[in-house]
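Hi C.,

You asked whether I'd gotten around to modeling the 480-residue construct. I have! Everything is below, sequence then structure, no commentary in between.
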Amino acid sequence: MSRSGDAENLAPPSATVRAGAVASATYIVGSLAYKVVAFLAVPILARLLTPAELGLLDLSVLVAGALAIAAVAGMDHAIARLDPLSDAGRLWTTAITVFVLVGGVLLTAVLLLMGPISRLILGEAAEPVLFAMAAAYGIAMGAMTMTMNAVRLYAVPSEFAFVGFVVLTTEIAAAIAVAAIGGSPQAILGLWAAISLMASVVIGMRRIPRLTGIDMTLAKKLAGFGLPLVPAAIVWHISEVGVRATIASSGDLGGLGAYGIVHRITSVLPLIAAGTALAWQPLVYRAPRDDQTAIAAQGVLLIVSALAIVGLAVSALSLELVAVVGGDAYAQGAALVPTLSLAAMLSGGFTMLTISAGLAFRTRPIAVLASLGAVIQVLGATMLVPGLGLSGAAFASVAGYASASLGAFVFFGWTSAAMAAHAVGVTVLAALGVLVMTAIGPESSVLARTAVALVSGVAIIVLVKRDSISALTRWRNRAA
């Protein structure tokens, strides 16, 4: 297989950054396209399902996501890093074999323990079958992650965006159809699992390189690079499950649905970060070594600024978005939008910083930082939810992501000192805007909320325009 990304075939660094921006835009637009479909479907599902049912469905998706991450074991990132250095057939044969073994063990364990797991998370409202279906969907999601990684590496970004759009749109249409005939969240999860599994087989046959043989040396390299990334990704899912379990244990399953609606609204922010990371990873890892850090830093600079501006816009329209997406049954969630938008901004920034860690093969600190943030999030929810309700859960999320992001800046500041200073300034301006909007509340006029967002957004744009280019230049000179 030809590798058009070999270092000797690369364009100059400036052209590589432009290519990364174009590829990021394609990934993001494609992701946003099917996110728009999912977003437009939420009002339908919110009216076909009760808040409690929608809350349980969201909770199950989080559990499925955690299992998918565990089954993939960080191999999507490891393959991207090792692909330019390894035989593709042996690399993929080894990775797929590991995935099948790990996924089979996880699925069997959940099926055997679904009763105790359900009671641990939901207490008296236990739904064992719900978690069995979540486990099946999680392994199917893992298979999709593996095959879509092949599309990312060996196809054009537009194909990645198109395939993802088709698969998710099919899943959303199936969910609406099942809910319309009175189907349960369990039935929806089971259908999603079947769709994802079938799609992964079709995509894999088209894009995964011809399988040859298992290579134990590559297996060790996959594990060495990928496994430290698993805690960094999975702990956020587990901590979110912990937060939702805290809400559910209070007996407020309707509040669980409202919290889930707001998470769906603010999920556009980490989606932007994920789309950028998807495009930037191969470009950074395949670039000439002397240019890798500069390209990674530019990616972080771009994404932090974009997340801040989008988060402020979402916060300004908190009441209106919740009314459209969920309706009156979810109105209590409007007050959470600014706070959870800030949490989502911090989450996206942390995602982008993992690229800098990958450059130096220093993935273990990411796991430590993510675990620390997740523990803070769960402990915060345990302490704050009884007194503050859903707002306590939102504040706990901010505390968790802020701790992890701050730690990432400290750990990886040696690769991006100027970027860190710039990103902190942008984040502080965004946080001030969010705090003001939280203080005045969603009951204030949309004009007042918009004015706050505009002031903060203009300040961010001025800071970016004034400082980012010169700061990056100074940093690159020091690095040289």
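If it helps when you're writing up: Confidence is low (pLDDT under 50) at residues 1-14.

Thanks,
B.
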